[in-house]
Amino acid sequence: MNEMNQKFCQCCGMPMGDTDELYGTNANGGKNEEYCRYCFENGEFTFKGAMEEMIELCVPNMAAANPNINEEEARKIMAEWFPTLKRWKK
Question: Using one digit for the tens of pLDDT, what is the confidence trace for 32-66?
Fold first, then answer.
């Protein structure tokens, strides 16, 4: 999948990959293409906290996955990007 068509979880921002392996599940057991399996199970969000808390959970993962980004930069990027994700849009 090319970068322009990349799907990201609309809660944590994680890249969803080329398959439905990371997709969350709806209440009926079907796959949910908008949220990953870590954020959305059986039609419900597994994470109940605020956007800022989600960012803090994700900062170490983003920094680890991108060696040229430190935690401070990761936090800044997510603070700008997360409000555009469906879960956090106002």
Answer: 999 999 999 999 999 999 999 999 999 999 999 99
Q: Answer yes or no: is 78 within a domain.
A: yes
Q: Is residue 90 part of a domain?
A: no
- What pTM was computed for the model? 0.88
Place of tokens 């949220």: 35
Q: Which domain range does residue 40 map to?
A: 3-84
Residue 5: what pLDDT? 73
The full DSSP string for the chain is --GGG--B-TTT--B--SSSTTEEE-TTS-EEEEEETTTEETTEES--S-HHHHHHHHHHHHHHH-TT--HHHHHHHHHHHGGGSTTT--
